[in-house]
Amino acid sequence: MFWSSAIRRRPAFRDGARLMTPVALGIGAWGLMTGVAMVKAGLSPLEAVLMTLLVYAGSAQLAAVPLLVAGAPAWVILATAFCVNLRFVVFSLHLRHYLMHMPRWRRLVHGYLTGDLSYAVFTRRYPQPPTTQDERDDQEAYLVGGYTVNWSCWILLSLAGVALAELIPQRWGLGFAGVLALVGILASMVTTRLQVLALLIASATAVAAYALPLRLNIVVSIGLAVLACFWLEQQLGRLTRGRTGEAG
């Protein structure tokens, strides 16, 4: 197994696990409320447990559960989950440069287990892909350490939510802790004006398009921020090259 003792012995594995622990507690609170929500929405405890273990996607689970309970067609449920999780296409495109040297099955496992927070923490630590074998091993160990903690917190607390669904009222709003954790990570990663602009565009678009069905406001906000900043980056590059040519 690629997460064998050779991976776990590397200091980067422990660093990834240590740095993920505080934010994973927030995502675990979100998992707890997801477990509660699945049972209170009408799923049996067995169905909720199976969904927790097989799906591993909080937003998609919360979007799909009401459709499952309402008896919606399978294609509608799948399309909804697909739209909610489209952000992972962006994550995958970025991580491709870090993982393409690995066999396909390892890339698939990494892709499945990497969540929003583990992706954010990993890319903050390693803004550039590896160039040597030692860097590749360190980056993989860090990624595995981070998402192991994230996955464990999510699964354990989601199962706890399923088990304690009748005792935990949804009005506690513990799931908001996961949102706050993600916002904190994103805020700490914003270090350039272009990143600030991307954050502002995505935030404003997500709010303005909130009424879109199937949580498409998330997809639209990501797409618009990426396109706007890509266009602006090209324009700034042309302006810089033009000034360099004039100076020459």
UniProtKB/TrEMBL annotation:
Gene Ontology biological-process entries: L-valine transmembrane transport
Organism domain of life: Bacteria
Topology in membrane: Multi-pass membrane protein
Annotated InterPro entries: Brnchd-chn_aa_trnsp_permease
Localization per Swiss-Prot or TrEMBL: Cell membrane
Primary residence: membrane
Residue ranges of the TM segments: 20-39, 46-68, 74-93, 142-165, 172-190, 210-232
UniProt KW keywords: Cell membrane, Membrane, Transmembrane, Transmembrane helix, Transport
Annotated family: Belongs to the AzlC family.
Name of this protein: Putative branched-subunit amino acid permease
